[in-house]
Write a structure and sequence with these properties.
The chain has about 240 residues and is of the alpha+beta class. The protein has 4 helices and 16 strands. The chain folds into 2 domains: about 5-105, Alpha-Beta Plaits, CATH 3.30.70; about 120-225, Alpha-Beta Plaits. The strands form 6 sheets. The protein has a 4-stranded antiparallel beta sheet, covered by helices on one side. It has a 4-stranded antiparallel beta sheet with strand order 12-15-9-16, covered by helices on one side. Strands 2-3 form a two-stranded antiparallel sheet.
Length: about 240
């Protein structure tokens, strides 16, 4: 948290349309500042301007330019700015970074009532991972097999399960299955994590419900973060 005294004001100038890995550059910079613990940052959007290309860019109701200037401002300690500067230069690319010495007369204060921090507990242990592979077209009675399996696992007190839908796959028939609109021949994987005893109790259930498919069992180490003490494991999906 900032305190009264000497600090550095950082101004970053970008073009609104610039991107980094498919995401707007200013959004990437803001995320970086947030997750590195910067006290606060503001993004300001220009209505007109020009840059190194010396072309005037402006916004109007007829045409909205994606080359308008964007300015990101934040104030931090000199030490924090030095820590961030190298990565910021990489993120900004051809943009401009300005540093200006400043003085904080009164630091910002939280207006909301301070909440009591929740004590998180980190627990570790061993468990069994079960993956069930079926086809999306497989049925159990009049319902999709993967939905029936999920309901059965839940009814038998498995800690949790997650259903994944494949976008490209092939199986024993060597036929390529693609995720296409109006087609439902994709591969389905159901992932379950629980104690070895609970997973083994579920195997006879799978024997009754599966006509074809694959079940894979693996030993896993579980690291669980919880706001309160609980038995391990209590969460399912991988």
């Amino acid at each position: 948290m900032l305190v009264a005294g000497k600090a550095v004001k950082v101004s970053i100038y970008l073009s609104e349309g610039t991107t980094r890995h498919g995401v707007s550059t200013y959004s990437s910079v803001l995320d970086y500042l947030f997750f590195r613990g910067v006290s606060g940052a503001t993004v300001l959007k220009g209505v007109a301007g020009f840059g190194a290309d010396h072309h005037i860019h402006s916004a109007s109701f007829v045409e909205i330019s994606d080359h308008l200037p964007v300015k990101i401002e934040f104030i931090e300690t000199q030490e924090k700015v030095n820590e961030l500067l190298g990565k910021l230069e990489e993120l900004v690319g051809s943009g401009l970074i300005e540093l200006q010495e400043t003085t904080i007369a009164k630091p910002a204060q939280h207006t909301k009532k301070k909440e009591e921090p929740i004590e998180h507990v980190r627990m570790t242990g061993s468990a069994k991972l079960m993956r069930i592979y079926v086809d999306e077209t497989d049925k159990w009675g009049d319902r999709p097999l993967h939905e029936a399996l999920l309901a059965a696992l839940r009814a038998n007190d498995l800690a949790g399960a997650t259903v994944y839908r494949g976008i490209l796959s092939y199986g024993a028939d060597r036929k390529i299955h693609k995720d296409k609109l109006f087609h439902n021949d994709s591969s389905i994987m159901i992932s379950v994590i629980d104690t070895e005893a609970k997973v083994k109790e579920a195997l006879p259930l799978l024997d009754k419900m599966l006509r074809q498919g694959i079940v894979v069992l693996s030993d896993v180490d579980v690291i669980k973060y919880s706001p309160r003490a609980a038995a391990i494991p209590t969460a399912g999906g991988e």
